[in-house]
From TrEMBL:
GO MF, one example: protein homodimerization activity
Record field: catalytic activity: (6R)-5,10-methylene-5,6,7,8-tetrahydrofolate + glycine + H2O = (6S)-5,6,7,8-tetrahydrofolate + L-serine
GO CC annotations on file: cytosol
Source species of the chain: Salinibacterium amurskyense
Protein name: Serine hydroxymethyltransferase
Pathway: One-carbon metabolism; tetrahydrofolate interconversion; Amino-acid biosynthesis; glycine biosynthesis; glycine from L-serine: step 1/1
Quaternary organization: Homodimer.
EC number: 2.1.2.1
Length: 423
């Protein structure tokens, strides 16, 4: 029962260094967040010891009476948060949720139609090297390459041409709300199953700040660790009893063995917190922060340098910086921001003239900083730091000091002694 620092000082050092990094820099990767202490406690718990193959009340192992309570709470809270009739909370990740969804609603070789990866789609929506591109006949629709906006007439035309078995609506890099009613009507017109992957915007949906796909889709998948700010994992929702049964059998035993009960307990806590007023306030600050950043980056001092914002702004928790006309490429932009203490990721933009490892875009998200407590004042300052950092000859020492001042003003995990123990 010796502490980690004694048993494995090398890994203890990694935890300590990572905690320092998270505390002292500004995390703006759009898919990341900081889980609350309560979620960390549930996840770093003795529930990691328990095997519980099966579902609550129908397990293949003894001793599941307490973990059953945790999973039932997670299921009930997920259903109530998103208004669905059924929920499966066992997927280990977003990708495994998506594998289970596709195996439940399609047969290998069936045609699937999703947003193209280089226009903001996800690997699991049909990328050639992913299971979704290998097992299914994957087709893609795209955004308008000039505006970056999804035109539903193009989606409809593509669906009529491909006649897919499954239409996928959802994204990893897009800045406008999807028209779920229109997706539903296109799916009905071509006789397709409609699957919405709300991994990115689920937190906004939970807060009532983004349309809810559940009433429109046959099945909805999501992660828990992005805007929701829960443990790294996935879940699946549906209102259709037949699909619900297929989802359950395709998660276990179809895709997975024993569920991660410590993570499921942490999901339950995250779903409970996501129903609170505090959570709504946090999602509102997330959205306003992204809008402030977009407004700053389309000002003349930036557009004259070829820096622009895809779709001209944002309705969600992220901004896509368009560097197609800039001297700086995505890799350089990411490195410049890293050098002042801001973490973002480079991202391909539609019709990107640069290769995928370099790219002409940056994806910058506000969820983690909103969780840290940032509001309009701080996001205005962050937006200005980012704008200044992307200019030639930026004073990186001065910008780093401004970043550090913001980080220091919003301490993260106060009382958490590295590694892993609370004061
Ligand atoms: N779906 C979408 C839309 C995503 O953006 C992501 C993650 O980036 C996933 C699924 C996969 O989630 P995970 O990384 O947990 O497998």
């Amino acid at each position: 029962l010796s502490p980690l620092s004694e048993v494995d000082p090398e890994i203890a050092a990694v935890l300590a260094q990572e905690l320092d990094r998270q505390r002292n820099t500004l995390e703006m990767i759009a898919s990341e967040n900081f889980v609350p202490r309560a979620v960390l406690e549930a996840q770093g718990s003795v529930l990691t010891n328990k095997y519980a193959e099966g579902y609550p009340g129908r397990r293949y192992y003894g001793g599941c009476e307490f973990v059953d309570v945790a999973e039932k709470l997670a299921i009930e809270r997920a259903k109530s948060l998103f208004g669905s009739a059924y929920a499966n909370v066992q997927p280990h990740s977003g990708a495994s949720a998506n594998a289970a969804v596709l195996s439940a609603i399609a047969q290998p070789g069936d045609r699937i139609l999703g947003l193209s990866l280089d226009h903001g789609g996800h690997l699991t929506h049909g990328m050639r090297l992913n299971f979704s591109g290998k097992l299914y006949e994957a087709h893609a629709y795209g955004v308008n390459e000039e505006t970056g906006v999804l035109d539903m007439a193009d989606v409809r035309a593509k669906a009529l041409e491909v006649k897919p078995h499954v239409i996928i609506a959802g994204w990893s890099a897009y800045t406008r709300q999807l028209d779920f009613a229109e997706f539903r009507s296109i799916a009905d017109e071509v006789g397709a199953v409609l699957w919405v992957d709300m991994a990115h915007f689920a937190g906004l949906v939970a807060a009532g700040l983004h349309p809810n796909p559940v009433p429109f889709a046959d099945v909805v998948s999501s992660t828990v660790h992005k805007t929701i700010g829960g443990p790294r994992s996935g879940f699946i929702l549906t209102n259709n009893v037949d699909i619900a049964k297929k989802i359950n059998s395709n998660v276990f035993p179809g895709q997975q063995g024993g569920p991660l009960m410590h993570v499921i307990a942490a999901k339950a806590t995250a779903f409970m917190l996501a129903a609170s007023d505090d959570f709504k306030d946090r999602q509102e600050r997330t959205l306003r922060g992204a809008k402030l950043l977009a407004e700053r980056l389309v000002q003349d001092d930036m557009t004259s340098l070829g820096v622009d914002v895809l779709t001209g702004g944002t309705d969600v928790h992220l901004v896509l910086v368009d560097l197609r006309k800039s001297e700086i490429n995505g890799q350089e932009g990411e490195d410049l921001l890293h050098s002042v203490g801001i973490t973002v990721n480079r991202n391909s933009v539609p019709a990107d003239p640069r290769p995928p490892m370099t790219t002409s875009g940056l994806r910058i998200g506000t969820p983690a900083l909103a969780t840290r407590g940032f509001g309009d004042v701080e996001f205005t300052e962050v937006a200005d730091i980012i704008a200044e950092a992307l200019k030639p000859g930026a004073d990186t020492a001065a910008l780093s000091a401004r970043v550090r001042a913001l980080a220091d003003a919003f301490p993260l995990y106060e009382g958490l002694e590295s590694p892993g123990s609370w004061a």
